[in-house]
């Protein structure tokens, strides 16, 4: 059964069709799905996260999903600073990096949809003053927002 | 998204209890910038920017900012 209801799928299809500009690639790091799990290495939400991302990227031909294995593709994970899974990184027109760790459910699903639009367009809806201040940064900045499912 | 120097993470902390412990997450949303500036709750955009600039300036602490 789909994680996104058919009504929401249609709403998202319309939204993406209207608002997406450039292509967005989601690089998703997961682990091999198996009925056997190694104690201490379970990834409770890896499968659900993959299914959710497959459903979302299936709603527009401007959205792409690249699935990588956290262990086999360790070098790619390291390059993107991914140290835990499930995790995915958005890439498109926007500068900087937007990453998600854990399944984007509840309110975070809305954040993901908004981020996909912003990354596709290549600019945020922040004020000119904020955009100017951020654009002028001369050192690296790492912003982490911790959330729980709502 | 407005600077190539920024990495922005959304972390579903209940899946990563070690991070909850490391960053002392007792309430959400909690934002941690460059490991040393942190605040709980959602801030209006100008106040958020102020925290970002504090992190860049070396993370001076205010009443609403804690060293982590």
Structure description:
- The complex is a heterodimer of chains A (about 150) and B (about 70).
- Chain A has 5 helices and 5 strands.
- By secondary structure, chain A is of the alpha+beta class.
- In chain A, strands 2-1-3-4 form a 4-stranded mixed β-sheet.
- Chain B is of the alpha+beta class and about 70 residues long.
- Chain B contains 2 helices and 3 strands.
- Chain B has a two-stranded antiparallel sheet with strand order 2-3.
- In chain B, strand 2 and strand 3 form a beta hairpin.
- Chain B is globular and about 30 Å long.
- Chain B starts with 5 loop residues before the first strand and ends in a 12-residue tail after the last helix.
- The C terminus of chain B is likely disordered.
- Chains A and B meet through strand 4, helix 4, helix 5 and strand 5 of A and strand 1, strand 2 and helix 2 of B.
- Strand 4 of chain A pairs parallel with strand 1 of chain B, so a sheet runs across the interface.
């Amino acid at each position: 059964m789909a994680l996104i209801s058919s009504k929401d799928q249609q709403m998202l299809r319309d939204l993406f069709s209207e608002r997406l500009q450039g292509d967005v690639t989601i690089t998703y790091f997961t682990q091999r799905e198996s009925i056997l799990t190694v104690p201490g290495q379970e990834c409770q939400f890896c499968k659900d996260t993959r299914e959710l991302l497959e459903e979302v990227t299936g709603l527009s031909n401007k959205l792409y999903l690249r699935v990588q294995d956290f262990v086999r593709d360790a070098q790619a994970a390291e390059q993107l600073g991914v140290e835990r899974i499930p995790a995915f990184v958005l890439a498109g027109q926007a500068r900087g990096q937007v990453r998600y760790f854990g399944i984007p459910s509840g309110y975070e699903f809305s954040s993901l949809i908004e981020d996909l639009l912003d990354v596709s367009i290549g600019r945020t809806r922040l004020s000119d003053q904020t955009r100017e201040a951020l654009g002028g940064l001369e050192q690296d900045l790492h912003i982490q927002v911790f959330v729980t499912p709502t | 998204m407005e600077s190539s120097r920024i990495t922005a993470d959304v972390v579903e902390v209940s899946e990563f209890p070690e991070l909850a412990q490391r960053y002392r997450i007792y309430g959400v949303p909690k934002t941690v910038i460059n490991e040393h500036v942190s605040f709980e709750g959602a801030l209006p955009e100008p106040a958020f920017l102020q925290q970002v600039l504090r992190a860049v300036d070396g993370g001076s602490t205010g009443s609403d900012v804690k060293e982590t």
